[in-house]
Every structure is written in structure tokens, then in C-alpha cells.
Amino acid sequence: MVEQIGIERLTGIIAFARAASLGSYTAAARSLALSPSAVSKSVQRLEQYLGISLFTRTTRSLTLTPEGRDLHERALRLLREAEEIEQAAAAARAEPAGFIKVTAPLPIGAHIIAPALPRFREQHPKVIIDLRLGDRFTDLVEEGIDVAIRVGEPADSRLIARKLAPNRICAFASPSYLASRRRPERPEDLVDHDCVNFRYQSSGQTLRWPFKVGDKVIEIVPNAVTIVDNSDAVAAVVAAGGGIGISPTYIAAPYLRRGQLVPVLKEFAVDRSSITAYWPESRRGNPNVKAFVSFLGEIFPSPTAWDAVFSSVS
Questions:
Q1: Are residues 245 and 187 in contact, defined by beta-carbon separation less than 8 angstroms?
Q2: Chain center to CA of 140
Q3: What is residue 262's three-state secondary structure?
Q4: Do residue 72 and residue 115 come from a single domain?
Q5: What is the 3-class SS of 240-259, one letter each residue?
Q6: Strand duo 216-220 + 62-64: pairing
Q7: For position 261, what pLDDT does the model report?
Q8: Do 21 and 85 fall into the same domain?
Q9: What does the angle CA 260 – CA 310 – CA 109 come to, to the nearest 5 degrees?
Q10: Range of the domain at 292
């Protein structure tokens, strides 16, 4: 008689598959809403039951053993089958209900998505939203993400995409700073100014500032006097008179309304890619996903409220 697989071993297979796909127990734990130690122990119990080592472990990473690579492919097939069962059941349910897992970059999530969530829940009170903010480009399918909002386009044929709005960025300064300094007329004039730049947390690189000059987009790296790794902090430093900084219009808009920032080199502002929603092909019929994607169309109208503010300020 074939032994039936237990819940504990199924849990171990799921934990193993996520850890193998994401490269660490910490990342797997984040995607599964568990602690890293719980994921580690679950994988260890699976290894003990199978009598093989699935990972070669170091202090920094996990590497699959040959046996682990074979089992990983099989585990992914199992999880894909489970995913199809779950989505078929969800599609049969007409009313949105239950969990929806959404991911977005921190500034977009904090400024645009999060403030709108209460309105979404008024429309769909049975939906529970799990919003995860960060700049790491997750594998939606592997991590069980229902909808991702990102800037740019990932090369993944398993995803459906819908463009929401342009990602418009421009240079800004405070009126107090410009009162004591000559206003730049062209991007090359920035060499004579104090600049506030952004540093990517993931790579440590500083932002190259894009400007549209004629039919081309040029990029410069300013001589920054202040460098910070948070987009909101860039706007805060600039609004306090710290110099000229570059920012997406959705972050700058509240400062523009209050008169704390004004556009600089506005005629050279660039639409840098698009803010886009993505969801797995397997979620096409999911009522939660359909409801949330439809709602995104409401909070990203054309033109957006923040770009309307930007256009109205000289």
C-alpha cells in the first residue's frame, strides 16, 4: 500500500521549493509569511524524512545539491498543479473574497496605493489585502503574488501587463534656494548648483538624472552635496532648501501644492518608462485580481492628479 503524504511533508516541500527559487530561507519566509527558522526547520525535517541533503549551505546562500535540483523541478510541478486548483476554485466564485497579495515599490505604495485601500475595501469588504512594499523585483509566480505594480517591463511571458500611468520625473528646488542662486536654464547648468541625489539600496549606485534634449534623452550624474537612499527623503531635503533634486511627480505633488517646491528645467522633464500592473496568466479569472486591477484604473486616471498639479505649476 502506498503511504499517503502528510501535511508536514507537504509543508516541507512548499518551504523547500520557495527557498530554492528565492535563494534563502529569509526570502522564502517573507513570501510565506513565516519566520526563517520555521522554514529552515521544515526543510530539515523533509531532508531527514527523505534521507538526502537538498542544499549545500553557507552563511550567505543556499545551493541546491544534485538531488535537490531534481526534487526542486518536481516540487515546482506540484505547486503549479496546486495553483491551478486554487485559481479554478477562485474563478468559480463570482464575488471577490479572501486574500489578495499585492506588491509595489515603497514610494508608489506609500503615496498612491496605500491611501486608496480603504476605498477598495468599501467596495469589496470581503477581500483581505496583503500589501508588500519594496524595490526587489519579485518572481510573481514563484512567490504567489497576485498583482505587482512596478516601473518598467519585466521579461516574463507568464505575466499579463496593464500600463497605469507615465513615470514622469523632473528636477525641483525650493523657492528659498532659488532666491539665492541663479535658476538653471539647461541641464549642464547644474554643475554650478548644490544637488541632492538618490542612491539605490539594492545596488549602491547613484541615480543618473535623465533630461529630454530635443529628440534625445541625455543622462548626467550631478555633483551631489547630499545623497540619500529614500525617494521621500530626497524631496524632504530639497524642500528644506538643500539644493536641486530630481523626483517623480507623484512624490513632488504635495510639496508643489504647498508651495514648498517648484519645477526646475521643466521643459526637459522625462517620462521614464511607465508605472505598470502585472499579474500571472494563471490569475486571469481570479475575481480578486479582476476587482483590484479594475480599481487601479480608478486611482491612476489619465491624467493623474499629481501630473495635473505638476502641469499647473510653472
A1: no
A2: 11
A3: strand
A4: no
A5: CCCCEEEEEHHHHHHHHHCC
A6: unpaired
A7: 97
A8: yes
A9: 85
A10: 98-166+273-312
**Domain end call among 43, 68, 91:** 91
Q: Which of 166, 149, 157 is nearest to 278 (CA)?
A: 149
> What are the backbone angles phi and psi of residue 281, rounded to the nearest 5°?
-55, -35
Based on the fold, state whether residues 172 and 267 are members of the same structural domain: yes
Q: What is the rounded CA–CA span in Å between residue 311 and residue 3?
A: 67
Of residues 185, 249, 184, 187, the one with CA closest to residue 213: 187
User: End of a domain among 62, 91, 120?
Assistant: 91
Residue spans of the chain under pLDDT 70 = 1-6, 59, 87-94, 136-138, 154-155
pLDDT of residue 17: 86
Q: What pTM does this model have?
A: 0.71
Hey, what's the torsion of the CAs at 297, 123, 232, 151, to 10 degrees?
Answer: -30
CA dihedral 81, 141, 70, 19 (to 10 degrees): -120
d(CA 154, CA 265): 30
Give the angle subtended at the CA of 279 by the CAs of 154 and 276, to the nearest 5°.
Answer: 55
- How buried is residue 38: exposed, middle or buried, by Cβ count under 10 Å (0-12/13-18/19+)? middle
Residues 86 and 67 in one domain: yes
77: in domain: yes
3-state SS, residue 223: coil
Strand intervals (E) in 185-265 = 195-198, 209-213, 216-220, 224-228, 244-248, 262-264
pLDDT of residue 232: 95
With respect to residue 13, please indicate whether it lies within any of the assigned structural domains: yes
Q: Tell me the longest C-alpha to C-alpha distance in the chain.
A: 85
